[in-house]
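Blinded run. Sample ID left blank on purpose so nobody reads anything into the name before looking at the predicted structure. Input follows.
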Amino acid sequence: MRWWATTVTELTGEAREVALAEVQAVHALSNEAKYGDLVAQVDGGEVDDVELLEAVLELGLQSGRIRALYGPGGEQAAVATVRCLPRGRERGDSARDVTSALQALTGKTLEGVSVAAVGPAAFAITIDAGGVTASVRLDRSGARLTSVGL
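Blinded prediction complete.
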């Protein structure tokens, strides 16, 4: 995939096949014009409405539908596509930022780890190491370092 502005180009191979089938399924259920337009875009290999494509693929991945229908290869193709889309890139960036911040704990003695459910599909992980406490929130938006204390 190559990116210019918000347009996906060269959506090919298994990624295109899975995306097309998922968008066609959603269009068949809803019959909304926006999904018909998206079917045409994906079929042509160039998508302008990347946010709508992202929503369709995320739903298929979260529900397990994509893996059930297209197997692990189809799931990986969809995941790779989502990672290139705006929210997917943001989640990847947030994960890299948290990883970078947590590098301060490298080599320190682990004193404790806890996980708490803080909402639907949202968790807080607290890590105590070497006298430093770091809290990370994981949710649909990504990973965020929420606090660091001594």
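Unblinding after everyone has recorded impressions. The chain has a mean pLDDT of 90.
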